Prior knowledge:
Structural class: alpha+beta
Strand content: 25-35%
Helix content: 25-40%
Number of helices: 5
Shape: elongated
Amino acid sequence: MKTLKLRIKDKHIKELNQLSGSVNFVWNYVNALSFEHLRRTGRFFSAYDLSEYTKGSGECLGLHSQTLQAINETHAKSRKQFKKAKLSWRTNRSDAKRKSLGWIPFKKSAIKYLSTRQTGKKALKSTIQLSLSKGQKLLIDVFDSYNLSLYQINTLEIVQDSRNRWYACITVKDFPKQKGGTGSVGIDLGLKESATTSMGDKLIIKQTQKWAKKLVYSNSIFYLLRIV
């Protein structure tokens, strides 16, 4: 598995802030629910148990059902990993003392790669379609430095940094498969030119030019001595 981190264009900031607020709402709800259940019964909720309480809420929050499952799984895994009865609350309010950076998880069924196009001599931009609730779709454009068309996307998480920039962290299964060349070319090594191909292309480097005359002179003397 490999994770690719791609910058998302700033035109999507408003939509991503709204979605991250919905994710924080679900996180805080399952956080409080898990702690209350532990206090009453002495047992922890699993990700499956939490899914029973969040089922159907995606329609009101604008989140895909698989996103809700990913939130529940991450919460249950983090609580078990850090051995805590309750995790930290999440908020993206601007006036909060401890603001949480945005986080929006997506599973494979909610991700669809659309296209990759060239925007400059070397720059690439790709478009990804993400499924939300009630058949709604979110199209995001990313600055693609890996060429996503070569990979098979597994999962995707949209994260925010402290500079209010958003990134798509994409896990991929397969590394890009690049085919080797099938053509052939002949190369002739020389004295004046370092190499000459059968296509007529010549390679000349400074080192070759520096010693070319001396090499020709020494080879000529060697040839004459052999004749004598």
